[in-house]
Each structure stands twice: as structure tokens, then as C-alpha cells.
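For consistency, the fold was encoded as C-alpha cells, which produced the following:
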Amino acid sequence: MVQAGASKEKRAVGAELHCPSSTDSRQATAHSLQPTAHSLSLRNPQSALRNQKGGVSVYLALLLTFVLFSLLVMAVDVGRLYMVQGELQTAVDAAALAAATRLTGGSCATLYADVQIAASFDSTGSTASGMPNDNRFNMRLNQVSTNSEIPTTLMSDYFALLNDAQVNANGGQSGPNARYVRVQVNVEMPVIFTRFLSLTRPPTQPVAVAGIAGVSSAVCTACFIEPLAVVAIDTTDEINYGFQVGQYYTFYLSPVQRATGPQCRVPRPSAPLTDTIDYAQYLILNHYPWGPETGVDGQIFRLGAASMVKSPDTENPDPGCVTIDAAEVSNANFPSTTCPAATQMGRDFLCGLNARFGVDPTSNACANVEGATDLTPLLKADTDPGVESALQ
């Protein structure tokens, strides 16, 4: 009995230690063939890409941010700088052109030119709309002044040669040597995005523009013109000689004519002709007129109708030209000691000018001028463009 029980215990122990059956072998084999996480990543690439999608999105976002920032720099900062440069270039060109009109060669020419430059940037004036009429920049928000929110530097200089003005060398010229003016403006424009491109980049970007203007070549000799000279009202005025630009004047040939008025009346009228602001004297210079020989009236008529020409006189030839700095005298054959004589000579000359515009002398008082009726067919009217519209 005891032995039998012992045998059973041995079998029970043996049952725990027996080799696995075929079924158990299949289960163990199946368990050992289950892939690990490492083998899964190598054997399933699509799953690996899904795990890396977040990294690609970060790179794309950074790239788009850089592209958008570059576009902002181009659109905002670079666009603004180009706009300001164009505005400033227009301003300095206008100032240079205004200053160049005063470079007449006089001793005070550069002083008058400086006044024009200052006026181009003067904010004290205003237009009909109430806006300042100075040349501003940055969409007219800032003026060219050291007191502006955006400080600017305005410089001007005068040169004898164009090449010197272009390279800004040998400046400081004056008088007749000041033939070109250079106006330059320097601005430190604030930028918004460009300064973030570099840690050492300043918050402003310099903008510099320059405008150059000068007088054209001097007309030293003029030929075949009307031999008239206008006497300066103010000899100390080297620019306009006392005349006001855009105004009209009553011209007289002889002082006695002014003393008695345009109609030779006594006393002289209290004011010059209507729509004129003052009197101004003119002279008829001593030059040879075109056409056949006539009396004094016909000679003045021919000067007005055909201008002066070269004289055939071999002893005292008339070149038919007027040269700068050459002395000129009035014609001694044109008496102007009395008001009626001066008035008649003025009429003769105006009748000659009418012939240049195609006006028939028989239709007005010019028919009384000696030889006017016979001379008019010989003196053809000017054919310059715009003459017909000017007469209408």
C-alpha cells in the first residue's frame, strides 16, 4: 500500500517535469515568433513614416516663416525705402532747377540760388488746400529739416564743370564760375523688419539723393533779330533788372514821351496804360534794316517787319548781329526829341511787327506809314507754328 502511493507521487512529480507535447511546442514556437518593437520598425516602413510626420511639419513651418519674413522685408522696408528715395529725388531735382535759374553770372548769383533752394523746402507757405507747399517725403509726412521726426541733412554747392558736380569735387564756385548747382539730401530712414536680419544691423537705413542742374550754353551772339533794347528799371537788380515777372509795362521811346503820357497830353496821366503796372523805356538800336531804301518811317517799318541784316556798306559794315558785352548805340536817324516824333516812330515799328503776323497795313493806321503798302508784299509773314492760333 505504501509502495503504491509512492509510485503515484513519483508519477505526479514526473508529470510536472515531462517534456512538452507537440501542442505545447506549437504554442511556444508561435510565441517566440512574435515580432519585437525593433523588428517591427525595420519590417514596416509606412508605420515609420507615420511616426516622423511631426518632424516634417516643423521643418516646413520654419521654412514658410523664413519665406514670409523675407516677403515682409521686401514689401515693407525695401518698398518704403524706394518710395522715399523717389520722393527725395523729385525734391532735390526741383530745388536744383529753381536754383539754376539764378546762376546768371553775377556776383550775387549763388546767394539768389540759395534763396531758391531754401524756398523749395520752406514749410511756412501753404496752398489753396491748406497743405504746405514744400517738397516733403515719406508720403508727405516728413519735411527736409533737422527738426523733422526723421532727421535729414540738406547740402548744396556750386561748380564750374558738370563732371565736378557729378563727383562732388572742386565746389565752392561763385560769380561767373558758378555754372552748376548740386543739391543733396541725406536721410536715415527707420526700418521695421530689416534690422532683424542681423543682430548688429542698425535700426535705420541711409538714403542719399542728389540733383544737379545748370545753365545752358550762353547765347553770346544773336543775328537777324529785332534791334530793340529795353532799359533796366533797377540797375542794381542783376536778375530781373527791376521788372516783375508776369507783369505788363507801358513802353516809351523817349523821356519826353513819358513826361506827357502815351497820347502826348499835358499833364501826363497819373497811371500808365490799363493792365500795366509801370513805365519802361526802350531804344531802337543802330542797325541796318532789310529792304529797299526809304525814309525814316519806312526804315523803322522795315526793321520791325524783317529785322536787321548785314549792311552792304564796305566802309562801315553792319554784321546784322548783336554780341554780348559789345557796345550798342541807338540810331541817330530816329529823332525822338518830341513826343509826337517818338509816338510816330513807335507806330512805324509796330506796323512792321504787324506785317510779320500777316496783318494788312491798309486795314489800320499803318497805311499812312511811308512805303508800307509797297513794302508789305515784299515782307512775308512768319510761318512759325502757333502764329495762326495766336492771332485768333
